[in-house]
Automatic annotation (TrEMBL):
PROSITE patterns named among the record's database cross-references: SUBTILASE, SUBTILASE_ASP
Naturally occurring in which organism (per UniProt): Bacillus cereus
Positions of the Peptidase S8/S53 domain: 19-260
Protein's UniProt name: Alkaline serine protease
GO MF annotation list: metal ion binding; serine-type endopeptidase activity
Metal-binding listed as a keyword: yes
CDD domains: Peptidases_S8_Subtilisin_subset
Keywords: Hydrolase, Metal-binding, Protease, Serine protease
Any coiled-coil regions, as ranges: none
Active site, renumbered: D28, H59, S215
């Protein structure tokens, strides 16, 4: 799957980085409870009339696999297989949701001391209430990562909220030639890029499938951030964010590519 073919090692002879000791809250459609390739630390649903965080769509499970699928010779291995995954269901089976539901998920993630929150979701409406929730989480030291949006075919700035907010890292999608995916949103808030076209990962009902979008790219960045945090638990969210940007490989126009492609080995070199 291209994501986990490189072992990320601290030093020669030291065990590879796997995200151990870090935690990620995935605010999405839930995660498949029964998937043999995905371990869930804890979960909750904030979707009306849905009491279970089990994934009834597939999207959230796909992201969970990209970040943390187990290293077990099954299907695929995530970027950070030992990170703790929190399944925070804020989107319904059609992957629709409300800002207010997402905010409940953010508050839960703060309470559970998640290191990173992934929001592969987007709305067009600006909201002070929504932004304040992001700022609160960011001030608590949580790294916030969101998909930039899948409206890159539009003219002008097509980045959606929450990715557009200052407190949130906006991530765009690359294809396997390191070109911006046609749908990947453009705009000055774009920070970094990661693979997001035809990504093989876990799906609900114990399945696997290919999917594309800035959602998948954002999940990849979350996995890399987990590795950097494991490497140095003293790093702040701001420092991890800066390191991800500084170590990215430039690919072209910042409005289309931000700082470029996330690169964990370069990040670890710069860090040293």
């Amino acid at each position: 799957n291209g994501m986990s073919n490189v072992l990320h090692t601290k030093e020669k002879g030291v065990s590879p980085l796997t995200g151990k000791g870090t935690s990620v809250a995935i605010l999405d459609t839930g995660i498949d409870r029964e998937h043999p390739d995905v371990k869930i630390k804890e979960g909750i649903s904030f979707v009306e009339n849905v009491s279970d965080f089990d994934d009834d769509n597939g999207h959230g499970t796909h992201l969970a696999g990209i970040i943390g699928a187990q290293k077990n010779n099954m299907g695929m291995t995530g970027v950070a297989p030992d990170t703790d995954l929190y399944a925070v269901k804020v989107l319904d089976k059609y992957a629709n949701g409300k800002y207010s539901t997402v905010v409940k998920g953010i508050d839960w993630a703060i309470e559970h001391k998640a290191n990173i929150i992934l929001m592969s979701l987007g709305g067009k409406k600006e909201s002070v209430f929504f932004e304040e929730a992001m700022n609160k989480a960011y001030e608590k030291g949580i790294l916030l990562v969101a998909s930039a949006g899948n409206e890159g075919y539009k003219e002008g700035n097509s980045i959606t909220y929450p990715a557009k907010f200052d407190a949130v890292m906006a991530v765009g999608a690359l294809d396997n030639k390191n070109q911006r995916g046609f749908l990947s949103s453009k705009g000055e808030q774009l920070e970094v890029m990661a693979p997001g076209v035809d990504i093989w990962s876990t799906w609900n009902n114990g399945d696997y499938r290919l999917d594309s979008g800035t959602s998948m790219a954002a999940a990849h960045v979350v996995g890399v951030a987990s590795l950097l945090l494991e490497n140095d638990r003293m790093m702040s969210n701001q420092q991890v964010r800066e390191l991800l940007k500084k170590s990215a490989k430039p690919l072209g126009n910042p409005l289309e590519y931000g700082n470029g492609k996330v690169n964990v080995s370069r990040a670890l070199q710069i860090y040293r």
